[in-house]
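Changelog-adjacent note: as of this version, every example in the card shows the full chain rather than a window. The one below runs 252 residues end to end.
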Amino acid sequence: MNNYYLTYLLAFSMVVPVFASDIDKEERWRDEVSDFIMDGEAVDIVADNRGVFGIYTEAESDSKKGIIVVHGTGVHPNWEQVIQPIRVRMTGNGWHTLAIQMPILGNDATSSEYAAIYPEVPPRLKAAEEFLKEKGVTTLVIIAHSQGATMSSYYLAGSSSDAVGFIAIGMNATQSDNHINSAESLKKIGIPVLDLYGSEDLPAVLETVATRKHGGAGNPRYSQQVVNGANHFFDDKDDELIAVVSKWLKEF
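Full-length structure tokens:
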């Protein structure tokens, strides 16, 4: 083996992942959130050879069912709108929950700039699945909000997942890149999907209702549901949100 080839192999073996996500911001979220978790515990989910912040909350009863809770643009696993209500209150319905930090960018990042971090999504969601499986979970469902729903659809469309159900809350389909467009991803997802949104949701969500429905048309287990009076963040509609989610999950 010549020295050039040996040097190449050595350099290749020392390559570490390069992250487009704002890792410093992720760590700031971890520091700010960890000390104020009232329900559940902060955990490290190992993905791409680094610990990713997560919050694990055990079901209030003996259970083998688990939910991966996925937040939206730029926030964290204990976000008080949509994310925290689901990760905490679903434990009372017999579900372990794991909310995981997703890749994020700075506050002024555009949707097109977010496309660069999508390759970092599958390792995190796969690691979340493995974490719950190690806890004894055998029935896995992903519940995701806003851009987290688009990220989750991207993952489910292109990866080997153990999830048996997917609830997408406030998901839009405006992305120009078909590779990450949720309507395109829905064409490749065969597990049960609930496409849930509010009647007062964001324009990007409401204007793509038909586009998403067309994307899910090939899946007989795809359905849409609207919550009257709910905005994108389901403000003052936590009870309605949990009621819809709980009813849909009864089939699992």
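Structural remarks: The first helix runs from residue 3 to 13.
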